[in-house]
Amino acid sequence: MLGAIIEGLLWLTAIGAVLLVATAVYGWFKLRSATTSSTQA
What we know:
The protein is built from one helix and no strands. It has 41 residues and is mostly helical.
């Protein structure tokens, strides 16, 4: 039972990390495209 709980926490942590990285990369690209398209660098 404890192993299943630990495995579930590991999966949640992994999914959370992937979502965090994906959101950061998406936001960075969006910010970069916004700054490059506008006049101010």
